[in-house]
Amino acid sequence: MRELPRQLTVDELADLFEGRTRLVENLARVEDPLGRAEDVLGGLSHEDKVEALNAHPAIGQRRELSARSAAEQGTGTEPAVLTELAYLNQVYEEKFGFRFVVFVNGRPQREILEALRTRIGRTEDEELETACRELVAIARNRWAEHRWTRT
């Protein structure tokens, strides 16, 4: 991975993590925020982790997306897949109490659908840990792409 930034502002981090959350505020206070993001997440309360996850749009959501999220989710519009994504997102959120977060960035929606089906079968603790790792992977990838487009 390209070099991670030594310091980022709250606004820069909010862009990478889809909103100003406790996670973002804590990361803005540390050196190497993307390198230390998993450690910072580990020190957050359950509620603060959920807040960070729920800042992301639902997979398959088509309205009210940031330009970055829209580009990452792609343009797949197969009605049956979108319907199942919407349904399984609802099942997931009802089971776990937080949004399904997965590193997408251009992966086919059918592949994401399969990941969602699998992850619904996990325990809440397993899923919270996985979702938080995915959240960090998304932010790091966004930073790498941002840096690439600026050079």
How many angstroms does the end-to-end distance come to? 15 Å
Class derived from helix and strand content? mainly alpha
Give the number of helices.
Answer: 8
Helix content: 55-70%
Shape: globular
Mean pLDDT: 86
Low-confidence stretches: none
Rounded Rg: 15 Å
Largest sheet report: none
- What is the CATH homology-level superfamily? Oxo-4-hydroxy-4-carboxy-5-ureidoimidazoline decarboxylase
CATH class: Mainly Alpha
**Named CATH architecture:** Orthogonal Bundle
Fold and architecture overview:
There is one protein chain. Helices cover 62% and strands 0% of the residues. With 151 residues, it is an all-alpha fold. It has a single domain, classed as UraD-like. The protein is globular.
Q: How do the strands and helices of this protein lay out in sequence?
A:
Layout: H1 10-17, H2 22-27, H3 37-42, H4 46-54, H5 67-73, H6 79-96, H7 109-120, H8 124-150
Helix pairs in contact: 4-8, 6-7
